[in-house]
């Protein structure tokens, strides 16, 4: 049984890793028969997804010659953590659809969804522990890396929640949020692969790569939110409805050269309750983002960040042209994806 349907069109270098991740998840979720958990667990893990983080982890670990069993365990930990954060994020944002399917809290209720998230977090740490059996030194590094990234991502989410509909939101504040929320988060699997492959000297450089590519990934998400491609049941502008502090919102306020009336209307729409924001208001904001240059800026900024991250990876892999080419293909997929 393959795990869910997905609009997954990755570069060739990831195609072999994706089925392995799906098989690992199928085996994992079918091994449980826990009242009050199994139903939600199955729904969460079988609604598709790009599986980008675990696939990227497996590719890099394999490329660097890490123990395959340990790499699979750490890749599973990254995917389970990702699902924990998605479950909580959907509840916090009130999102009813993800990947074109009902979100977990809509399917099973908030209480059960939170419990499934807690269970998956415990399971993620169990998989880190399994990966750590290779040696005590690697074990400590894996646990410290995993915990640090989890903590920092939650801090970034707190900043995100605290600055919604902020009338004075800036690009610098946006940068602070995405560095906390996605910078190390996307690099988690790469750093785990480095630990497992004995490449401790590359860890700091990999974090630096993540601080470019992670924000680029988030900027791409901000842009995709303006289209039906984000898998929200056809709904567009969810970030606008939720008052999220996106790059587009920050640019419009800071550099968009808005009239006083447009500025006040933008802030007012962002501040409205989600259910009270109508489609016409969302479309007005989307049109504003296009006309004031925010969308164009976002496209250019995501590309700039991707190129900066790729260049940093190529520096640490200067004697590994195959790895550099593969990494470039994967990173370009991040910024060019339509879903």
Notes on the protein architecture:
This protein is mostly helical and 339 residues long. The protein has a single domain (12-336), classed as Farnesyl Diphosphate Synthase, CATH 1.10.600.10. Helix content is 72%, strand content 1%. It is built from 16 helices and two strands. The chain has a two-stranded antiparallel ribbon with strand order 1-2. A hairpin with a 2-residue loop joins β1 (97-98) and β2. α4 packs antiparallel against α5 (68-93) and α5 runs parallel beside α8.
Strand order of the largest sheet: 1-2
Number of helical stretches of at least 4 residues:
16
At the fourth level of CATH, the homologous superfamily is: Farnesyl Diphosphate Synthase
Largest sheet: 2 strands, antiparallel
Beta content comes to under 5%
Q: In CATH, what is the class?
A: Mainly Alpha
Number of strands: 2
Low-pLDDT stretches: 1-8
The class by helix and strand makeup works out as mainly alpha
Helicity, as a percent range: over 70%
CA-atom Rg in angstroms: 20 Å
H-E order: HHHHHEEHHHHHHHHHHH
N- to C-terminal distance: 23 Å
Outline type:
globular
Whole-number average pLDDT?
Answer: 91
**According to CATH, what is the topology?**
Farnesyl Diphosphate Synthase
CATH architecture: Orthogonal Bundle
Q: How many structural domains are formed by the residues?
A: 1
């Amino acid at each position: 049984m393959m795990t869910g349907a997905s609009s997954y069109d990755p570069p060739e270098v990831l195609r072999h890793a994706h089925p392995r991740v799906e098989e690992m998840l199928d085996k994992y979720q079918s091994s449980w028969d826990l009242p009050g958990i199994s139903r939600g667990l199955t729904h969460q893990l079988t609604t598709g997804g790009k599986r980008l983080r675990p696939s990227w982890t497996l590719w890099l670990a394999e490329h660097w010659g890490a123990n395959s069993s340990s790499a699979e365990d750490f890749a599973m930990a990254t995917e389970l953590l990702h699902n924990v954060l998605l479950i909580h994020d959907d509840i916090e944002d009130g999102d009813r659809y993800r990947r074109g399917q009902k979100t977990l809290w809509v399917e099973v209720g908030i209480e059960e969804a939170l419990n499934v998230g807690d269970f998956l977090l415990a399971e993620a740490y169990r998989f880190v522990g399994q990966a750590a059996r290779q040696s005590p030194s690697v074990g400590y590094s894996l646990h410290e890396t995993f915990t640090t990234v989890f903590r920092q991502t939650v801090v970034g989410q707190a900043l995100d929640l605290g600055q919604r509909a902020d009338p004075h939101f800036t690009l610098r504040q946006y940068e602070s949020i995405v560095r906390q929320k996605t910078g190390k988060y996307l690099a988690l699997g790469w750093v785990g692969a480095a630990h497992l492959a004995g490449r401790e000297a590359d860890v700091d450089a990999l974090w630096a790569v993540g601080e470019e590519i992670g924000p680029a990934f988030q900027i791409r998400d901000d842009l995709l939110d303006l289209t039906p491609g984000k898998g929200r049941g056809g709904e567009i502008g969810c970030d606008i409805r939720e008052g999220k502090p996106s790059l587009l919102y920050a640019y419009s306020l800071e550099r968009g050269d808005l009239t006083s009336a447009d500025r006040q209307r933008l802030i007012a729409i962002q501040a409205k309750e989600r259910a009270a924001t109508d489609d016409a208001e969302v479309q007005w904001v989307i049109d504003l983002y296009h006309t004031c240059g925010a969308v164009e800026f976002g496209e250019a900024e995501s590309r700039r960040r991707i190129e900066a991250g790729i260049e940093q990876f190529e520096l640490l892999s200067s004697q590994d042209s195959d790895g550099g080419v593969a990494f470039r293909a994967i990173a370009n997929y991040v910024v060019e994806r339509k879903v």
